[in-house]
C-alpha cells in the first residue's frame, strides 16, 4: 500500500489502518526531512522503539540516514524492486532521538564581530528575519552551528524562491557550491576568527569551549553521516588528544590547526566508534580547511562524546537541524537531551 504524504494526518491515518497488522514494515520514499517527519510521528504513536521498523528509498539531496543504513546514496529506479525485496531481510536497529530546547538568557554584551564572519556582522539581513523559528524540537541526524549553517540557509532560501533550478541532486549540489562562494571572504579570513568568542560548549557538565580554537563550524552528530555522506568524526576509536590513527582507519585525520600548546585544562578522554543507538552524541569542530577536506576522506577535530549537551550562545547565530537551517537572533542556551528511540531497518549486504 502506498500513501502520499500530504500532511501529518496522512501518516497517522496510514498507521491507524495497519496498526493491527503483524510484522508491519514501512519504507519512506524521500529525503532526510521526510524520513525524520515520519519517524517523529511514529515516536508520538508508539511507546519506545516498538514502532514498525522503517526502511528508506532515498529521494533527497544528501540522504545521510539512507547512506548510514545502507539503502543507497540516491534514487535508482532499477533498484526499487530490489529494495522492496531486501526490506524483509534487513536488520532492526534502535535509532536515538534528541530533544532541542532554547532557553532565553539575560542580554549579554555582544562580542566584537568586526573581525568575525559576515553572517555574524550582517544581522539585519531580511533573510534572517524569515527563518527565526526552530524548525523542529527533535533531530535524528545532526545539528550544527556556524559557517556551514550560514551557507545552508542561503541555499535553502534560494531553493524556496526558485525551485525550478533545483530539480535534481546533481543540480542541487552545483547550486550549493554557488551559494558557498558568497562566503569566500569568511574562508579567506578564517585565521582571524573562530567560534570560541561566540559560544560556550559544555559536554556532560565539562566546559570544552577551548576545543573550538580554529573551529568555524560546530557539528553535533547522532549518526556517522553529514553533508551528503561525509563522516566528520571518523571511523576509528582513539584516545584524545592522541592524533595517531589505527591501521584500519579509512578516514584520515587532519591535524588540528592549533597554534601553540593545547589548553592545560584538557584531559585525555576515550573516544569510541559512533553508534546511533548508544544514547551518546559526537561533538566535532570543523575549521574552514576541514569543511573542504571532509569530502575527500579526512575528518575534523573530535571534541567529545556525551549524553547531555549545553551550548551557551553569546551572540546571534546560524544553525541547522537535520538539514533545516535557521537563525537564532539573540543570546540563548541550547540544551540537547536524549528523547527515546525509534526502530529503523539497516540492510547488511553480507
TrEMBL record:
It catalyses: a 1,2-diacyl-sn-glycerol + ATP = a 1,2-diacyl-sn-glycero-3-phosphate + ADP + H(+). It holds the Pfam family DAGK_cat. It is an enzyme of class 2 (transferase). It comes from the Eukaryota. GO terms for cellular component: plasma membrane. InterPro entries: ATP-NAD_kinase_N, DGK, Diacylglycerol_kin_accessory, Diacylglycerol_kinase_cat_dom, NAD/diacylglycerol_kinase_sf. Signal peptide: none annotated. GO terms for biological process: phospholipase C-activating G protein-coupled receptor signaling pathway. This is Diacylglycerol kinase. Its EC number is 2.7.1.107. Gene3D superfamilies: 2.60.200.40, Probable inorganic polyphosphate/atp-NAD kinase, domain 1. GO terms for molecular function: ATP binding; ATP-dependent diacylglycerol kinase activity. Residues 1-104 form the DAGKc domain.
Amino acid at each position: 500500500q502506498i500513501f502520499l504524504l500530504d500532511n501529518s494526518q496522512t501518516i497517522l491515518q496510514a498507521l491507524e489502518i495497519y496498526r493491527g497488522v503483524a510484522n508491519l514494515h514501512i519504507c519512506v520514499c524521500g529525503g532526510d526531512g521526510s524520513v525524520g517527519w515520519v519517524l517523529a510521528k511514529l515516536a508520538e504513536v508508539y511507546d519506545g522503539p516498538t514502532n514498525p521498523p522503517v526502511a528508506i528509498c532515498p529521494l533527497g539531496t544528501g540522504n545521510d540516514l539512507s547512506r548510514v543504513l545502507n539503502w543507497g546514496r540516491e534514487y535508482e529506479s532499477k533498484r526499487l524492486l530490489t529494495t522492496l525485496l531486501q526490506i524483509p531481510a534487513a536488520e532492526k536497529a534502535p535509532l536515538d532521538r534528541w530533544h532541542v530546547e532554547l532557553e532565553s538568557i539575560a542580554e549579554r554584551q555582544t562580542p566584537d564581530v568586526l573581525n568575525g564572519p559576515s553572517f555574524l556582522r550582517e544581522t539585519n539581513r531580511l533573510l534572517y528575519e524569515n527563518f527565526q523559528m526552530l524548525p523542529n524540537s527533535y533531530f535524528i541526524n545532526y545539528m550544527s552551528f556556524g559557517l556551514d549553517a550560514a551557507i545552508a540557509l542561503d541555499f535553502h532560501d534560494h531553493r524556496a524562491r526558485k525551485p525550478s533550478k533545483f530539480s535534481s541532486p546533481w543540480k542541487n549540489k552545483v547550486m550549493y557550491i554557488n551559494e558557498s562562494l558568497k562566503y569566500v571572504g569568511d574562508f579567506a579570513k578564517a585565521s582571524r576568527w573562530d567560534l570560541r568568542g561566540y559560544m560556550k560548549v559544555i559536554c556532560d557538565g565539562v566546559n570544552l569551549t577551548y576545543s573550538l580554537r580554529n573551529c568555524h563550524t560546530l557539528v553535533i552528530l547522532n549518526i556517522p553521516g553529514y553533508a551528503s555522506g561525509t563522516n566528520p568524526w571518523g571511523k576509528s576509536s582513539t584516545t584524545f588528544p592522541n592524533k595517531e590513527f589505527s591501521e584500519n582507519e579509512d578516514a584520515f585525520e587532519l591535524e588540528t590547526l592549533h597554534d601553540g600548546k593545547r589548553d592545560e585544562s584538557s584531559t585525555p578522554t576515550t573516544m569510541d566508534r559512533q553508534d546511533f543507538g548508544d544514547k551518546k552524541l559526537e561533538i566535532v569542530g570543523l575549521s574552514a580547511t576541514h569543511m573542504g577536506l571532509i569530502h575527500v576522506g579526512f575528518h575534523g577535530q573530535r571534541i567529545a562524546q556525551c549524553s547531555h549537551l549545553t551550548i551557551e550562545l553569546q551572540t546571534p547565530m546560524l544553525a541547522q537541524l537535520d538539514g533545516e537551517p535557521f537563525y537564532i537572533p539573540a543570546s540563548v542556551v541550547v540544551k540537547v537531551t536524549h528523547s527515546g528511540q525509534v526502530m529503523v531497518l539497516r540492510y547488511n549486504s553480507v
